[in-house]
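U., I forgot to send this yesterday:
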Amino acid sequence: MAKKVLKGVVISDKMDKTRVVLIERLMKLSKIGKYVKRKKKYKVHDEYNKSGEGDVISIEECRPLSKDKRFRIVQIAKKGHKELKNDSNADKIKGGR
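Result:
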C-alpha cells in the first residue's frame, strides 16, 4: 500500500519532537460544482526539531508513533518566520510608535 504524502504549513512548534501542521485542500461540491477549502490539522513527528512555525513541509504517513501522531516530516520545502509577540522592540521593528 502506498504511503500518503501531503504538503502543509507548520502552525505550532511548542511540543518537543512534535509539530502541528495545517493541510488545506480543495473539494468540489457535486450539486453546484463550486470548490470549497477544507482544512485539517495533523500532529507530525520531527525527530531533530528542525522545523518551526511558518515552514512549508512535506509529510508522509507512517506507523502510529503515539495516540495522535501518524505522520513524519519528509522535507522542509520552505523556511518561514515567526511573528514577533510580546517583544518590547516589536513596535520599533514594525515601524509603530
